[in-house]
Amino acid sequence: MGHFRSFVEGAGFFFQGLSWVAKNPRWWLFGLIPALVVFVLYAMGLYWLGTHATDIAEWATPFASGWAHAAQTALRGLVGLAVFGAGLVLFVVTFTAVTLIVGEPFYEKLSEQVELSHGDLPAGHDLPWWKAIPRSIRDSLITLWYVLLFTVPLFFLGFVPVIGQTVVPVLGALVSGFFLTVELTALAMERRGLARKERFAVLRRNKARALGFGVLIFLIFLVPLAAVVTMPAAVAGAAIMVRSRMVVPGTTPEIHERA
């Protein structure tokens, strides 16, 4: 029950972030700008993938050329659907990383403002932007590598009957959710002087809470335009969660009631 309670609590931090941006609409609009720019670019990419999924499926299944038309169409339709589904998952997982990189100055300010509304900012760990952005890009690429390490096998397992339609989507949501939390909590953890390996260690120790937060956001981001509208709330919720519940080495979590 403890893990389930932590999972539910993690999901609740998204709603705390949503409440915060609802009370501070100026900062919500401020956080929409980079998300909207990245979303337009990603939407163009998904449109291209959707219109070429059949061609990609045909290229990937040359062995089916001599099959009966019905069997060939069924196989290539399934492969095309799987290709588009994999693209959609990559959209959701990488959207956050790319948006945080593009909008680093925006979300840094938003995250700081959230923390200021709960008390003082952690001091002594500020990086100039010309160091922060390259480090964010490097860390996001490493995170993406881990995502692919898990999602590529899951992609192929998706073709296994029954397992592919039941177990794989659940595992995919858990993996994607965890790494979304990795990306979204990076700003608040870096503010506390934590490097990438240390941030991963903190999230592993708070795995149920991290999964509850990330899985909910993953499911929300699957809804068209929801990723844009809720991105500021996700950043705000991550800042509140790190501040109030994540056990960071050398610090004591600060628990505040005021959102």
Explain the overall architecture:
- By secondary structure, this protein is mainly α.
- It contains ten helices and no strands.
- The longest helix is centred in the first third of the chain and has 36 residues, at 25-60.
Label the structural class. Answer: mainly alpha
Major beta-sheet overview: none
Beta-strand content: under 5%
Which consecutive residue ranges, at least 5 long each, have pLDDT under 50?
255-259
Alpha plus pi helix count: 10
Q: What's the β-strand tally? A: 0
Helix content: over 70%
H-E string: HHHHHHHHHH
**Roughly what is the average pLDDT, rounded to an integer?**
84
Globally, the shape reads elongated
Radius of gyration: 20 Å
How far is the first residue's CA from the last residue's CA? 27 Å
Oligomer: single chain
Name its key features.
about 260 residues, mainly alpha, 10 helices, about 0% strand, elongated, disordered C terminus
Task: Give me a quick take on this structure.
By secondary structure, this protein is an all-alpha fold. It has 10 helices and no strands.
Produce the secondary structure layout.
Blueprint: H1 2-23, H2 25-60, H3 69-102, H4 104-116, H5 129-157, H6 167-184, H7 186-190, H8 196-205, H9 207-221, H10 226-244
